[in-house]
Amino acid sequence: MMNNREFDRVLYFLELVSDVTLNFREQVQQALKQVWGYQHSVFWFTKDDGETFNPQLLGISDHIISEYFDFYITHDFLHPTRYIHENSDVPSVLASYHVLSLDELKRSIYYQEFMRKHCYIDEMAVNFSYNNKIIATLGILKQQGELPFNEQDVWRFQSISKIIEKKMMHYFTIREMIDEKQLIRNKLAIAEDGYILLDTACNVLYENPVAQQVLQQQGIKAWLPAQIHNERFIWSNDGQQYVFSTTKRDHKFDGFYTTPTYLLRVQTNNSYMNNLQRLGLTSREEEVCALLLEGLSYAEMSTTLFITVNTIKHHVKNIYQKAKVTKVGELRRLLFT
User: Total structural domains in the chain?
Assistant: First the structure.
């Protein structure tokens, strides 16, 4: 099925994505558009259970993807959660005609109420896996005026998917290293808090000066291993209380990542913690609130917490409503007064 022209196109595509950067997903989408004309796509990260998150969009608006998330994701017949629990072998490429006949597709709620509304006529999903677990999913859409997906499209993506998979592993490695450094750098911006980086055996990999003073207290190092799996725990000594907040850095790709780590934030149980507790925030809202107070942008918070910018905005809106404030300066005064 690969004639000389198609072979040249594959080589050109591989050249365009040869250098793996933090914008690798966008590189792939732009290359697919440039080489084969796929103008509408969404590149997701995928969890072990098939749930998709943190979409990278090309030719698709935030409004459309929000509508998809709000309702139509459960009707998407190519979404990984539809088949990830049913098959031992993860399908690498799925076109709509692999799952439904044309008549069934056009009668579906997903087609009638979502695809047709936004002038889409067909879709395809390309899954990238590691150890038979999906790590990322690329969705490609065709609009009115374009031809539906066919065997040529399927064969094309099958021929390049393994190459993209290997490069995705390099991408995750680069991203992990940069995120780790960025996370520590952001956390250390608040000098009055302590930060401790531990491996799974509770060996201290890093401690800032404030944390060093806390760790000098008798018995605390022996006490930590039983606590680090909790999101929040308290250490009391001589009338002083310290609140520990834990973030697990779970590196699930053995051989490509460093050892899993825990980042502990240590705070004195002062008026900030009391005021924060009174707001009744969820654990995720507390994470967003902490980063908001540190001055991170929505994009930086999205990268740190691995959720979309729209989800960050939603959490910030909820925080402001619960605190009855309209901007971060008012929130800071409320929590630290």
Answer: 2
C-alpha closest to that of 181 among 249, 232, 135, 129: 249
Decide which of 121, 145, 171 is a domain's last residue: 171
Q: Which of 133, 223, 312, 309 is nearest to 215 (CA)?
A: 223
Q: What are phi and psi of 20, to 5 degrees?
A: -85, 120
Structure tokens at 132: 């038979």
| Whether the predicted pLDDT of 86 surpasses 60 | no
- pLDDT above 80 (res 93): yes
* pLDDT per residue as tens digits for the range 180-204: 666 656 656 454 788 888 888 888 8
Tell me the mean pLDDT in the region 64-86. Answer: 86
For residues 161, 166, 168, 174, the Cα torsion angle rounded to the nearest 10 degrees is: -160
Neighbour order of strands in the sheet with 194-199: 204-207, 194-199, 261-268, 240-249, 232-237
Could you list the beta-strand ranges (E) of 2-70. 40-46, 52-58
Among 108, 138, 171, identify where a domain stops. Answer: 171
Q: Which domain holds residue 45?
A: 4-171
Instruction: Find the distance separating the first CA and the last CA of the chain, reported in whole Å.
Output: 70
| CATH code at position 26 | 3.30.450.80
Average pLDDT for the chain: 84
Show the tokens assigned to 97. Answer: 């005609």
